[in-house]
Design brief:
Radius of gyration: 14 Å
Largest sheet: none
Structural class: mainly alpha
Number of helices: 3
Low-confidence stretches: none
Strand content: under 5%
Helix content: 40-55%
Shape: flat
Distance between the termini: 17 Å
């Protein structure tokens, strides 16, 4: 599970470094309009990443880890 969190956060760091015009960065904040399905709300990728950041107690202002792998 730790490997998945690390890889998700690494990818998220790369996405944050992209220009605002890049399609990948636009997809992070994309909201689908229309009727929602019944039942529990869908967990988005962004919500999962935010949970990873919170569980690992990472400072949100620090988007990349310089030199750490």
């Amino acid at each position: 599970m730790a490997v998945l969190k690390r890889d998700r956060l690494r990818w998220y760091g790369h996405v944050l470094q992209n220009d605002d015009s890049e399609w990948v960065k636009k997809c992070v904040d994309f909201v689908v309009e229309g009727a929602r399905f019944r039942g529990r709300p869908t967990i988005t990728w962004k919500k999962v990443v935010e949970g990873d950041v919170k569980s690992l107690k990472i400072n949100k202002d620090r988007s990349t880890l310089d030199g750490e792998d």
